[in-house]
């Protein structure tokens, strides 16, 4: 079991939503240092804590990842949280928006894992925590590009888990259902606040759980899928068709 106390943690997309809450939760756990990254450094909130090191990072910019890596070579836990959601169906959604989600959620996160793997191996025992989504198990058609990008990221995370299993780097996958952040702006669903969810995520990261579903709605969906994969497809079908 790896406690977060005294660990050096890097969190992407730390300026708002779940990422911002994960920074607070990491500090609450007694992390030694938290690299809080955002594509716009001026948007990173003041966490009023000397352990926070703000850094500019767009995960779709490979050169910038390489630069950040040089400044964070003591990182022990990489939390790939940054992500984008552009709504749209496969048949009618804008192709460029689907490509954007794939670029960020899949290619960007894969690039992070590729570039940080050797540093994490050197700092082992270490971890990569990928914030994926419940739609990795079964797609929700209104956000089809996003769903595909998260399914691809889920698959890549499983591949990397095997690649790194003998090298001291654990891969944990977080698959939330629906959390009350900007990503769900306009939804009338009753959703948990990111601060509460981030605390649950960090508790479960410490217990070395490989697949973490941090919210009740996500758990209901996960249970349906685990019982029989078409059950989750049926839930999404019902929501999609009203
Ligand atoms: N909210 C949910 O219900 C839910 C459910 C399942 C999974 N998730 C996942 O949880 C993660 C956090 O989402 P959230 O709900 O907190 O959404 P959010 O409030 O929209 O935050 C998304 C974060 O990702 C950052 N980001 C987007 N593209 C980026 C890029 N190219 N490089 C670096 N940072 C980038 C955003 O930065 P800017 O401010 O610069 O845009 C922002 O900090 C995402 O991976 C999301 O897919 C969320």
TrEMBL record:
Entry keyword set: Oxidoreductase
Family annotation (Gene3D superfamilies): NAD(P)-binding Rossmann-like Domain
SUPFAM superfamilies: NAD(P)-binding Rossmann-fold domains
Pfam (any one): adh_short
InterPro entries tied to this protein: NAD(P)-bd_dom_sf, SDR_fam
Highest taxon of the lineage: Bacteria
Protein family: Belongs to the short-chain dehydrogenases/reductases (SDR) family.
PANTHER family (UniProt xref): NADPH-DEPENDENT 1-ACYLDIHYDROXYACETONE PHOSPHATE REDUCTASE (PTHR44169)
Protein's UniProt name: Short-chain dehydrogenase
Species: Flavobacterium limi
